Amino acid sequence: MAAVAALTPLAYLVVRAFEAGADTVWRVLWQQRTLELAVRSLALAAAVAAACLVLGVLGAWLAVRSDLPGRRVAAVLLVLPLAVPSYVAAFTWIAQWRDLSGFFGAFVVLTLVSFPYVLLPVAAALRTADPALEEVARSLGKSAPRTFLLVTLRHIRPAATAGTLLVALYVLSDFGAVSLMRFEAFTLGIYTSYQATFDRTPAAILGCVLVVLALLLTVGERRARGAAAVRSARGAARPSATVRLGRARIPALLGVVLLLVLSLGVPVFSLVRWLFVGRSAGVDVPDLVSATLGTVTVAGAGALLTVVLAIPVGVLAARHQGRLSRGVELASFAGHALPGITVGLALVFFGIRVAPQLYQRTPMLAFAYAVLFLPLAVGAVRTAVAQAPPVLEDVSRSLGRGRLLTQLFVTMPLAAPGVLAGAALVFLTSAKELPATLLLRPTGTDTLATELWSSTEIGAFAAAAPYAAVLLVVAAVPAVLLDQFLRQGGRR
Length: 492
Description:
Keywords: Cell inner membrane, Cell membrane, Membrane, Transmembrane, Transmembrane helix, Transport. With 492 residues, the protein is mainly α.
């Protein structure tokens, strides 16, 4: 079911791409513009992913393992940039520095909103690391830096590579930041193609290319993640030792503060400024409340459906290694690479032709969110199930419980923090989603994202500020809960 859901828009793309014939497909593929879009998109994804890998690993290590002053507060604050939609971040940066645009502007904005995708899983891996492994390395004469390189990094490598993959996929599918920064990536090229002509075939072909790029990234991540099992601290009697930073303590604190200022301070300052500028015009409170309720409703429905679809995929990937599990997991990642505008248009076509009773209703939009964000939930479920001791399932089976009952009453309770973390991550990401929401939102329903975009399109920054501010609050709540779920998982 999950694989079918993820592949439905892809099937539509393939049909639309080839309906004009193979000659048209090859002509579009070999155009210089297609190559330029591919190079631009991959360069941006690689640059942002590399920067997020460095920031995420260092930030997680400082917040979990070091004696950084205020590290518990820093651990919470470093998660909050995940709640800032890319288009809100781009809007706030442009409002302060109007000349910021192009590759550099998109790189800055996407890095500052994406590094928590790496920080969160790495922090969880650091909390579950067995301190004995590092202590043995130190007892053998390894220095602290070599211990970190040879032992700690090996433990967090699967989490870091998985988080980096999500960053790369997020950048490939981003529409809001690249459009506001006027950087012509694949998503903006597809949108322009849809808007510029009645012929949708070139845009469908470009969408297929984007899916291929995403699948290549996913395969590369699986190879980098490796298959070696790493020992965790589950059941350990003591936590890992805190590393003293010494003279590096103040520079490390200043680095964390600078990162928080750039990722949170600039958006908050800009929004407060525009709220102050627009105070004389007042706030349309009924519309603001209606948009907030609409956001919570559709994002909650999307999170519920996504987790329901992700659980069997995550269990299969964690407990049954083979071609089937690899194929299903790869299929679940396909939709995440599709830009929201492409998924939205695909489901508009599907709704009008196949399921008109669902068109522009909440279930159709929830399905779009499930297609787009299934990998977020699958990754969380897979990691949580993999950390649940298989021996407990064996005991349950030996006592006469079947496979299904064992999964429901043994595996799922143990994996609950990770599953809830996945639900929280999908909720906050759905609340921020823009293009598919614009096309598929239920009739008469507006969300914070759509109201914000409508105002920024006409340059009404003061009118957009209240919706942006409430959207940040709505998205910040699951971001904080997400961090708490991962902390609970690390202490189990």
